[in-house]
Amino acid sequence: METLKNKTVLIADDDIDILTQLNLQCTNLGMKVLTAETQHEAEEIIEKTKPDIAIFDLMMDNRDSGFILSYKLKKKYPDVPVIIVTAVTADTGMIFGEDFNEEKSWIKADLYLEKGLRPEQLQSEMKRLLKL
Amino acid sequence: MANLNLLIVDDEPGIRSGIRRILSNFSVDFPFLEEEFVFSIEEAGSGEDAINIIDNNSIDIVLLDNKLPGMDGIEVLEYINKKQIDCSVMMITSYASLDLAIKATNNGAYNFVPKPFTPQELKTSIEGITKNLYLRRMTKQLNTVGKQIRFQFLSVLSHELKSPINAIEGYLRIMEERQVGNNLDDYEMMIQRSLERIRGMRSLIMDMLDLTRLESGKKARDVKKLDLAELMRISKDTMSPMAIQKNIKILINANPDEINFMGDQQEIEIIFNNLVSNAVKYNKENGEVVCTLEEGDSSVKIAVSDTGIGMSEEDLPKLFQDFVRIKNEKTKAISGTGLGLSIMKKIVEEVYHGTVQVESVVDQGTTFTVVIPKINLPV
Known about the structure:
heterodimer; A: alpha/beta; Rossmann fold; five-stranded parallel sheet; 5 strands; B: alpha/beta; five-stranded mixed sheet; 13 strands
């Protein structure tokens, strides 16, 4: 069975601690990690590099930075899976509900996760999305 | 121009057409409103018809006779209340008994006008009820906006509080699972970062408490022994630059010379500054302001008299209302928010359980008298 080893992950989060933690978790899995603290930094990385998978925080410079990054990444590399991590679903009442398929068609992320996810959870979701 | 739907409920066609005629070219506007209100009139000859019209149209004002052939006016009023219909009701009836007036007012009628009434009486009543309706709706709207802002504030706040919790939890899990090995030193950065995030969260909570205290208007009071005569002298000094421009003398008579009083200095200064500044503002050139302070056994009396333009009998009751300023030729050049006297009155009555009285003679002057009890002070 293939592993996540040597796969490249792009992580964008404006919370330096969350970025550090995701970085550590992915590094421990043997992945190559690219980090961005702003939407702009992430866009620059996308311009130059094709990651195997991406993890975007939803609210960064903009309230919907995660969506914008997801859109831009998918436009350039349609086959790269995107995970959007957010702490806001419960607070804002933002629910991806009945119109999920419709929303998905323009949001273009593969998975939404609440913040505070466990390393095993992250590992298995990434494996699933990369079909490993 | 805004349109209000007005329903006349009366079994006498003559009354209905009479009211329609009076209100046909009538409009209501207030100095504080940008809009002018005109009326579209509906008519009903019975309570049953009235309910039918109320259910199927958005009616803003109902002029309601009580004595109707079937169901009576009070029953219509009860129906409006039960269904919580957003309209203002004015009872009009020739059976003007006190019982009925009380019953109608208890059921939420705005007021009660006995028949027969003159066109002017009707117009005055319609002005009153329009103002009441407008203010009631405006208040409701402001409350709704307030709730939305509150919700936005809370959702931003909860995000700001959740972020550090997520960060700290993440570090603790890494440590719990020894993700970077068994050497405690390797976790030093995570411990420091967690402590930093806790500090940030604490200052956010402190700021939020300050903000809440400010918003709720409950700023900490500082009640201590004050000398009212001294505070009046401070007010005089504060207002002197304004008084000099009109060559107005400010005199203080305090008996005794020092009047001790338990209170909050800022609150007392608001009261005194308002009294003295009004006495200067509404005075004439070369006029005089006399501030008299007298200590009684249980209370202190503060009277501030001016030799100014004075006010008419009709203007007096309006004086203490929020944002209301007496408007005439003599006052138009004088500026103000219209809040000073109402704030002063609130402090005197609600905080110090005192009274405010005003006497005035046009072109001769005005005297405000404030009496504050020395006991019963909330500390």
